[in-house]
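re: ur question from yesterday

yeah so i grabbed the chain u mentioned. its 105 aa long if i counted rite. heres the sequnce exactly as i have it in my notes:
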Amino acid sequence: MKVENIKGKLVLVGAEDDVLWDNCKYIRRITEQLQSMPHGCKYKAMIYEHGTHFVFPESMLHIMIPVGSGLLVRLAFRAGRKYPRECKAARMDIDRRLSKIIRMW
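ran it thru and got these structure tokens back, copy pasting raw so excuse formatting
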């Protein structure tokens, strides 16, 4: 689907230290594409330096993995071990910003 054909809200979230998928590259590409042409899409791009592949809202991560979610992020991803506070801060910021976007919607 061409992103410029989306007629609604689009939220793009990624972390630079995601070693499984270079989603920040695609977020930047989509943002450039939307800025260069007319579209009916309202979008928000959020790119974090640290967050690993698990750039979920903190509350969603606790729903998906009720026990030990922070430990799993640290064990599964090198950036989670090296930057645990930054990764958690990113998830909490995502949670806050997405909640606000959803409430406004």
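noticed a couple things. The radius of gyration is 15 Å. also The longest strand covers residues 9-15.
anyway ttyl
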